[in-house]
C-alpha cells in the first residue's frame, strides 16, 4: 500500500498509469492546484538541470595521476599485509612442524642406534674367539711360559700360541 | 544516465573493464576513472558545495571502489555501484561535518561553468559579464536551498533530477527502499519548490 507521498511523487514523475492514476487524480481535492504543483516540479527540475548540470573537474589528468599513486600505495600496503599474514601463519605452523620434525628425528635416531648396535655387537667381539684352552705349563721347568690356543672364528682356523716355552712338554703333543 | 564515454562504448566494454580491475589491472581501473570522474566529482560537488572537498571525496570514493571492486558482482551497472560508494562516503562526510544552513560551506572562488557531459572541460559558450553574474546569483540561491535539505534528501533529489536515475537505482545506491526514496523526493521537492519558486517562475 503506497502512502500519499509515494503516490504524489509517482504522479509527478509520470509513473502512475491506468486505474491507479485515475484513482489518485480522483482523490485530489483541488486538481488545478495539483496540476500547478506538477508544473512547478517540472520547472524546478529544469532549473536544477540548467544551473547545476555537470561541473567541470579542473586538472582532471592530475586527478587521475593522484589516484593512480594512491592505488599503487594501497597495493603495496595490501602486499605487505598479506606477506605479514603469511609470516604469521608460518610462525604458527612451526610448532606442529617442530613437533613433527622432532618425532621424525627421534625415530631416525632410534633406528640408527639399533642398526649401529646390531652392527657393533659382533665387531666389538674380537675376530678371535680367544679361548685359553690350556695354560698348564710346569712353573718349575718353564716359569715364564704361556700357551694359548686361539680360534679364528671367521676363518675357522685354530692357532696355538706359545711364549717362553723352551720345549713342548710331552703332554702337549698334538694328538 | 550520461557518461563521458558514449553509451555504446560504455555498454560494450564496461563489464570487461570491471573484470580486468578485479584481476588487478590498474590500467582498466584508470579507464573507468576517466569515464566517471567528472560525473562523480560533479555529483559530490552539488552535495558539498566545495571544490576541494569534492575533489578529496571523489578521490576517496574511487579508492574505496578499487579496494572493493572484487565484491562487485555485476547485478547492477558499475555506475549505480560506484554511486553507492560515492553516496556513502559523501553522506558520512556531511554527517561528520554537520554541514547545515547556507553561506559557510560555499566555495566562492569556484568558477562556474556549464560543461557538455561528453566533453572534457571546454565551456559551452562564453557568456556576457552580466549574464555570468545573474547565473552566479541563481546558482547561489539553488545551492543555498539544497544546503537546507538533509544529506539523504540532497542525494535523492540530485540523483533523480540531475542524473535521471530510476527509483530502484537510487534505492540501490542509497541502500534503502523505493518507498523511502519516493518519500524523500516528495519532501525534498516540496522544500525546494518553496525556496526557489520565485527563481524558476521568473526565468
Order of helices and strands of chain B: HHHHHHHH
Instruction: Give the overall shape of chain B.
Output: globular
Largest interface: A-B, 39 and 55 residues
- The dominant shape of chain A is rod-shaped
The percentage helix of chain A is 55-70%
Mean of the pLDDT scores of chain A?
80
CATH topology name of chain B:
Rna Polymerase Sigma Factor, Chain: A
Give the H and E element order of chain A: HHHHEEE
Largest beta sheet: strand ordering of chain A: 1-2-3
Helix content of chain B: 55-70%
Q: Strand share of the residues of chain A? A: 5-15%
Rg of chain B over CA atoms, rounded to whole Å, is 17 Å
Strand content of chain B: under 5%
Helix segment tally of chain A: 4
Provide keyphrases for this structure.
heterodimer; A: 175 residues; mainly alpha; three-stranded antiparallel beta sheet; 4 helices; 60% helix; B: 203 residues; Rna Polymerase Sigma Factor, Chain: A
Structural summary, described in words:
The complex is a heterodimer of chains A (175) and B (203). With 175 residues, chain A is mainly alpha-helical. Among the domains of chain A are: 48 residues, no CATH class; 45 residues, no CATH class. In chain A, 60% of the residues lie in helices and 10% in strands. The longest helix of chain A is centred in the middle third of the chain and has 65 residues. Chain B is an all-alpha fold. Chain B has a single domain, classed as Rna Polymerase Sigma Factor, Chain: A. Chain B is built from 8 helices and no strands. In chain B, helix 7 packs across helix 8. Chain B starts with 6 loop residues before the first helix and ends with a helix. Chains A and B meet through helix 1, helix 3 and helix 4 of A and helix 2, helix 3, helix 5, helix 6 and helix 8 of B.
Amino acid at each position: 500500500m503506497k502512502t500519499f507521498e509515494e503516490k504524489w511523487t509517482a504522479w509527478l514523475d509520470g509513473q502512475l498509469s491506468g486505474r491507479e492514476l485515475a484513482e489518485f487524480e480522483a482523490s485530489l481535492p483541488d486538481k488545478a492546484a495539483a496540476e500547478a504543483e506538477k508544473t512547478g516540479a517540472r520547472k524546478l527540475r529544469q532549473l536544477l538541470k540548467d544551473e547545476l548540470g555537470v561541473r567541470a573537474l579542473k586538472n582532471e589528468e592530475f586527478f587521475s595521476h593522484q589516484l593512480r599513486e594512491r592505488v599503487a600505495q594501497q597495493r603495496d600496503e595490501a602486499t605487505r599485509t598479506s606477506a605479514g599474514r603469511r609470516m604469521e601463519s608460518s610462525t604458527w605452523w612451526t610448532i606442529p612442524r617442530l613437533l613433527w620434525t622432532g618425532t621424525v628425528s627421534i625415530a631416525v635416531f632410534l633406528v640408527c642406534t639399533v642398526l649401529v648396535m646390531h652392527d657393533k655387537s659382533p665387531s666389538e667381539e674380537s675376530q678371535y674367539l680367544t679361548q685359553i684352552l690350556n695354560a698348564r705349563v710346569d712353573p718349575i721347568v718353564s716359569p715364564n711360559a704361556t700357551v694359548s690356543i686361539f680360534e679364528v672364528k671367521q676363518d675357522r682356523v685354530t692357532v696355538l700360541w706359545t711364549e717362553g716355552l723352551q720345549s713342548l712338554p710331552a703332554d702337549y703333543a698334538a694328538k | 544516465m550520461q557518461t563521458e564515454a558514449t553509451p555504446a562504448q560504455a555498454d560494450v566494454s564496461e563489464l570487461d573493464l570491471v573484470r580486468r580491475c578485479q584481476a588487478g589491472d590498474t590500467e582498466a581501473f584508470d579507464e573507468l576513472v576517466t569515464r566517471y570522474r567528472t560525473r562523480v566529482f560533479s555529483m559530490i560537488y552539488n552535495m558539498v558545495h566545495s571544490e576541494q572537498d569534492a575533489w578529496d571525496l571523489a578521490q576517496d570514493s574511487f579508492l574505496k571502489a578499487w579496494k572493493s571492486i572484487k565484491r562487485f558482482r555485476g547485478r547492477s551497472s558499475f555506475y549505480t555501484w560506484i554511486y553507492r560508494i560515492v553516496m556513502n562516503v559523501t553522506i558520512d562526510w556531511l554527517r561528520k561535518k554537520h554541514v547545515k544552513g547556507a553561506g559557510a560551506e560555499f566555495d566562492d572562488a569556484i568558477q562556474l561553468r556549464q560543461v557538455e557531459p561528453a566533453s572534457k572541460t571546454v565551456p559551452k559558450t562564453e557568456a556576457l559579464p552580466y549574464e555570468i553574474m545573474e547565473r552566479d546569483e541563481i546558482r547561489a540561491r539553488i545551492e543555498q536551498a539544497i544546503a537546507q535539505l538533509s544529506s539523504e534528501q540532497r542525494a535523492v533529489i540530485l540523483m533523480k533530477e540531475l542524473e535521471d536515475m530510476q527509483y530502484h537505482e537510487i534505492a540501490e545506491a542509497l541502500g534503502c527502499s523505493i518507498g523511502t526514496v519516493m518519500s524523500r523526493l516528495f519532501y525534498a521537492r516540496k522544500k525546494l519548490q518553496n525556496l526557489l519558486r520565485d527563481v524558476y517562475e521568473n526565468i
